[in-house]
Amino acid sequence: MSISTAKETLAPQSEAEVCAAIRSTGACVIEGGGTRRIGLAEGERLITRGLSGVTLYEPGTLTLVAQAGTPLHEIDALLAAENQRLAFEVPDLRGILGRVGESTIGGVVAANASGPRRVASGACRDFCLGVRFVDGRGQVVKNGGRVMKNVTGLDLVKLMAGSHGTLGVLTEVSLKVQPLPETVVTLVVPGCDAPGAVAIMSDMLGQPFDLTGAAWLGGKVMLRLEGFETSLRYRVGRMRARLRCAAEEIWGAEACTPIWCGIRDVEAFNDRGGDVWRVSVKPSEATGLIEAVQPEDVMFDWGGNRLWLLMKEGTDLRAKMTTGHATLVRASDETKRRLGVFHPQSAVLARISAGLRHKFDPDGKFNQGMMG
């Protein structure tokens, strides 16, 4: 499946070379590992993998600074050696997108890639302390630092996270990391339909159990807790009393990790035909939306706030929706051009977005056509 119409390749090895490349080129498609882009874009490929390496890591202050092209697996390994991790549980979409390559930390931040743990910890952007990027004039912009209070004025850190490379080329990111928990447990509640699943997840998330995952797939609700074993056993007991139904307990990272990686990466849709949509919706409206659009398959994450839908090829999902926000993650290029990848913005938001893009990229060089 094509992801761009880029004809040439630029491969800078330093921030200075990124600046020079942007000044000397026209439209460009920014690429890290090439594993998670979902929008269509046109121009020369500007590959940031040459900007690689962790420049600062202080386990004691839970702070990490890395160049944007640093492979994600290198960061994960470095953190694991210190019994730490990235807090936002980065999804790996290579399976559903049919991609190869290695994800980079710059691509993760640019996509604001956030997995099941968002219900407890927040999104990727909530752990971004600072960024360095090159704007459309070829100038370096720095915002934030190594602590949250360093951000003053316009918070460009939050702005860049989720901008999908439309505002600038990330060259360095600063992140807050977190310790690994002592243990993890997943409660699996079988035999749940969509309304029942939403009711259970909403109730459990509304209690002081500190869930770090709440999902529904294949008729099963999965509820995850992480922390000290003594605390988890107490909370599991309270949850069982509240559930008043059968639930299987799965203990330990070795057993739980495959479950939540499957949810995080939407593995249920791998090697299956059809278009894949990601929908944000109020949990209370999730069941009605499913009844209205009649998907081939569905998975709820974030307690029903994020839905993954497998639809027949070419289906205009948004035409069937009366609520929610839908992103077309996987489809043919023709379908993406016809329907648009990202949800249409309101007139007010469109004006704000256009103004921001003009400010940071006045000549329209970055990822033209990516977000409409």
UniProtKB/TrEMBL annotation:
Protein keywords: FAD, Flavoprotein
GO MF: catalytic activity; FAD binding
Pfam families referenced in this protein's UniProt entry, alphabetically: FAD_binding_4 (PF01565)
Highest taxon above the source species: Bacteria
Record-annotated FAD-binding PCMH-type domain positions: 2-180
Protein name listed in UniProt: 2-hydroxy-acid oxidase
Lineage: Bacteria, Pseudomonadati, Pseudomonadota, Alphaproteobacteria, Rhodobacterales
